[in-house]
Amino acid sequence: MADHSRAAPGVAHHMSDHRPVGVFDSGVGGLSIVREMRRQMPRLDIVYVSDARYLPYGEKSDAFIRERAFAISDFLLAAGARALVIACNTATAAAAHALRAHYALPIVGIEPAVKPASQATRSGIVGILATAGTLQSRRYAELLERFGHFTRVLSQPASGLVEQVEAGDLDGPRTLALLRSCLRPLLDAGADTVVLGCTHYPFLLESIRAVVGPGVQVIDPGAAVARRVAQVLGAAVEGGGTLRCYTSGDAPAQQALMSRLLGEPVSVEPLSEASCVLPRVALAR
Ligand code: DGL
User: What topology is assigned to 114-220 in CATH?
Assistant: First the structure.
């Protein structure tokens, strides 16, 4: 792992900064954050890494995810990133602390929106839909400890959904069946608010709405995360609004899927082989 801890600058205080922001996820899910960042900061240059060779992160060990997070962050720093966005709840839970201890640049992570949900609920019951990795993490336990007191929080693992999004199946019968099986227990228990605690899930929003119906609020944290990124970057965002994407997975397949999800042509290049090395730590959690 390269040591950028000294070389990396902190929050940009000067008037304008042309360097890109580095964003990563296990796959295409982080694009649900990227699209909000582009809406709010159209001139921002973004370099995005999809670690599709190693998804789903939700089933991997923390040590495995941390190694991948360091390899990708080194790549993004070498690409000139001035800040990093961990556009993945699972990777934030497993690696944000270690990345912040190592790199001296601003790092924005993402965690399930327990607090906004507990403020929004009228029934006092909220459902958190996330990967097993996120829901089993210490960070999530701490989040519940801080914000879950006056609300009944139902933590619902949604295994299989990440793979459905990666396969481009946003509303097919299998995706709808998986959604029904993880949302039904939440509805039966009286949840009136559902949090999308994995960045892949906003791409299933229409299907999720169709299953939960109009009486349930669905919280997509993308816009709030993008606001946080804007805050961290400071006033001036002076780039060309470019988006460069890389993947450890199948570049042509990811390119087709990313273009479809963002509704614009995106070009995806293979991540350098050096950044794709299989971690030598336990694979499974
Ligand atoms: N998109 C990721 C998240 O927000 C996780 C996906 C995965 O399990 O790979 O948690």
Answer: Rossmann fold (3.40.50)
pLDDT confidence band for 12 (50 / 70 / 90)? very low
**Ligand 1 pocket test target in 55, 62, 254, 257 with most atoms within 8 Å of CB:** 55
Looking only at the bridges linking them, the beta strands covering 193-196 and 217-219 are parallel
Name the architecture of domain 21-110+223-284.
3-Layer(aba) Sandwich (3.40)
Atom of ligand 1 nearest to the CA of 198: 4
Strand order in the sheet with 46-50: 107-108, 83-86, 21-25, 46-50, 243-247, 268-270
182 catalytic per annotation:
no
Query: Looking up tokens 């609920």, which residue turns up?
Result: 121
Q: Does 245 qualify as catalytic in the annotation?
A: no
Q: What is the gyration radius of the CA atoms in the chain, in angstroms? A: 18
Instruction: Tally helices (H) and strands (E) across the chain.
Output: 11, 10
- Tell me, yes or no, if the pTM score tops 0.90: yes
Determine whether the shortest distance from the Cβ of 88 to ligand 1 is under 6 A: yes
